[in-house]
User: What shape does this take?
Amino acid sequence: MLPKAFVFFEYVYEGAVPSFMNNLIALLGSSLIASGFIWFITPSGLDSNDVNVISSHDIKDSLNSMLNGTERFSYYGHTARWNRAVTFPKLLEQANDLRITKHIDLIIIDPDDENACKFYASFGHGERNKGRKIQSTRDVRIELLTTFLSCLKINKSPFIEVSLYVTDKVSISRFDISDNALILTKPYQGDPALYFPKNTFFYSSYKEEFNVAKQQCKKINLDISEKDLTISNLKKALCEAGFQADYVDSKFNKELLKTSDKIEKPY
Assistant: This one.
């Protein structure tokens, strides 16, 4: 039957079948190799619920709910504006109500690193309609040091232990990590987020990435002698904490203290 078909359509039969079989074997072989590679790089036991996509409208609720009952919170990202405005007060309230210690670890951009601050300022945050606009290196430094001052304030609680680290690396993503979940977000309004529940492959992997990153960062001293900060002693306090602060002047101090007195949500 097959030879007659080749004769009818005026095809040369000799060599056609071997060529067809060779192509078929090659196709099957490549498929098996591709399947094996996918199996090799995919973690065993990975479930579809290990990764969840959160719409931009639900990110705030997810960031809040992940804090319920957690004893440790970690952040690896940029300025931690959301954390000082929302995460800090909620963890402090829980700690005071339950009389248990909450641990907070933050990794933010180093305000002393001009290149890192300048690069982060180019992300396009000026389009936000809430909180301070970030359009320059100076704006970024104000935000970062406002987070530092917020850490000093919440660290005064007997039920809160804060560790602050700074990095000269700028990532487009940021991690919020609790005992319940890890949420990966980007600094653009409207973008979705990724949600990784605890006890999953990606939760453990990104949590370990945070620990590795923390070991490569500079730790900021939050146990400074200056307790009541004013325009006159703020720069001294920054230097004692470990910042170079050679960009700080009286005008900068005034703006920084004003910003720290009025903590606003970024969205």
